[in-house]
Structures are given as C-alpha cells and as structure tokens.
Amino acid sequence: MVATYVDPVDERTFPLAEPRWRSEAGRPLLVSAQPGISRGDIETGERSLWRYRAALPVDIARPITLGEGCTPLVERERGRHRPLFKLDWFQPTGSFKDRGTSVMLSYLRERGVTSVLEDSSGNGGSSVAGYAAAGGLGVRIFAPSSTSPAKIAQVRAYGADVELVDGPREASQEAAIRAADETFYASHNWQALFLEGTKTLAYEFWEDLGFRAPDNVVVPVGAGSSLLGCWLGFRELRAAGQIARMPRLFAAQPRNCSPVEAELRGESGRPVAPTLAEGTAIRSPLRMAQILQAIRETDGDAVAIAEEEIVAALRGLCEDGLFVEPTSATAAAAFDALVARGAIRTDETTVVMLSGSGLKAAERVRDLLA
Fold first, then answer.
1. Beta bridge pairs of residue 252
2. What gap in Å lies between CA 225 and CA 219, rounded to an integer?
C-alpha cells in the first residue's frame, strides 16, 4: 500500500514524493491510514523513536536524529491512584515536539528542502531550530512577542533567525504563512509528517506496558499533535491486531483557553483570556475536527482547568520531583479532576503526558511557587 497525503474533508490525495503543507483547498493534510506494525518489526537495537521506523509511511535513509523518544514512564501516587507519568520533556530540546520534528525535517531534507520556516509559541520553534541545526538546514522562526524569554534564547542559540510578532498566537502563524512563498513552511501544526513522529508515543506506551494499551491517556492540548499522534498510533496498533481496543483519550486545557472542551459542551465561541499554560493558548486549533473525532471515537473527554488549579498541580508535581512547565501541569490537574468525577478508576492504567521541561519557564515557575 503506497502512502499518500490526504485531505480529510474531500479525501483528495497527493503523493508524498512532493512535500506540501496543505491541500489545494488550503486545508491541513493527514497521511493515509497505515497498517501498523507488530513487536517483531521493532528495531530493538535503536535507542530512539526510530526503533519504530517500520511504522512510518516513507523510507528515510538518513534521519536527523538526536536520540529523541524512549522517554521515561514513571509511576507516582496520587491518593489511591498510581498514574504513570510520561516524562516527554526528556528530549534533546526539552519538549515532546522533538518526536514530530525529527520525522518531519528528515522527510523534508530527503526530498530536497534546504531551508524552512516555522511559527511557534516556544517549544515548536526550539525544536525545529535545534533539528534544523543538526540537519544543516536554514531556519526562520516566527513567535509571539509574549513568548517566554528562555524559549526565545534557546531558538537563537541554535542559530535560527527569529521574528517576534505582536498579538495573539495566531498572528505568528499568519506572518509565517505570508512568508511561505519564499521558504518551505515546516509547521508542526500543518505538516502531516509531524503527526507521524508524534504517533510514536502510542508505540512507546504499548511497548513499555508489555505490549498492551493503557486504559486512559491524559494529554495537554493546544494544537493537539500529541493527542492526535496517540489516536493515529493506537489505531494502527488495533488495525495490526496488536491491541484489542483503543485507550480513552482525554484533552487537558486551561479554562482561559479551552476551545476543545467548549466545542464538546456545545459552547463554541467561549471567551479566551491569557493563561499560564502558554503552550496550549490556541483559540482555534487547526485540526479541531480530528481532535473531536479522536475524543469521541475513544469515549474520551476534555477537561478545562482553572488557573489556580494549574498552579496547585504544578506545585504537586514539583514536590514529586517532576519539574515541568505550567502547560504540563494542566494534564496532572485534569487527571485529578477526572478521578474526582469518577471517570478514571483505581483499577485502570492511566498515562499522564508531561510535555515540557520546567527549565523552559524557570522564572515563571519560581514566581508561581514563591
């Protein structure tokens, strides 16, 4: 079966041989459904996400890799529950974005792309800048002027050109798209191959749990790439007969910017306000339809977390030795809320995704916990 790009709305397909970031209709693309792999297809000698290269839709002879993936999965007590926390900030640039970036930029470089641009509120830009440097690619990053200085410093350290854009998060994306006629737009939100990297989360959960799926996965959601990656990866594993059922997928969002939770509650257009969880401050997720589909198909849900609950969860994680940025704390707070409402039981295996290192926002964390 030859993989293609596919527009999920009109189902028009495009060959993967030609890199593209949107359909002719201007919509974000996916990669056509893949058959999945079995445990025998894992390259066990490879200590990175590239151990699952057989699950990728294209052959990549020379990946741009810094050892991304294979991050810790640690158990912690929270009352009578013992959730498993996925420490996905243990990546080369300090966030979960490295999964998608490694696959996306490797694919683009092998198809002749030599320079890219990206828009990001921080972690995506850091990741693309770092992997572009590792792969010898030119890179230009558009970021909101409100982005944490530590994240911008990291982007600049990799040698990327940085343009700070005033206004909401979407303004950076609009500026990047205007520049896309000159340089390939390697957006972690638009480029379908990015999701092919994030789907390795599902394969890691499956392998780390003795080749079974967890019952629940709780993920911070802004643009939704981690949640969608889990959805794609577990669908492949089910198609390959490796798991009997999908885990329930839960989206964690700050109440101040919770468009997914609002859509599920029939409250589209809910007002948006600034939030501590800057990594999820996206008022109109590009792939909203697929995010809602993933949640509904898996009998999951979305949880909106108040700012004070984010701070409380952040404090609790730090007291457990888990130093994360505030965005990650929304997932821990969502887990607590789901337990309180009886949606998650003690006899279930639940994974909580922690996406970014506290070192990315150390001064903010210091002030919040003072």
1. 220, 303
2. 10
Nearest to residue 344, comparing CAs of 237, 233, 249? 249
Q: Which of 184, 193, 186 is nearest to 3 (CA)?
A: 193
pLDDT in tens, 183-231: 999 999 999 999 999 999 999 999 999 999 999 999 999 999 999 999 9
Looking at 253-354, list the stretches that DSSP marks H as alpha helix, in order from N- to C-terminal side.
259-264, 288-297, 307-319, 326-340
Determine if the pTM surpasses 0.90.
yes
Given a contact cutoff of 8 angstroms between Cβ atoms, the answer to whether 169 and 187 are in contact is no
Element (H, E) at 129: helix 123-135
Residues making up the chain, counted from first to last? 370
Under 8 Å between Cβ of 205 and 52: no
Strands of 30-31's sheet in order across: 13-15, 4-6, 30-31
Residue 185's beta-bridge partner residues? 117
CA–CA dist 286, 192 (Å, integer):
12
- Strand partners of residue 6: 13, 30
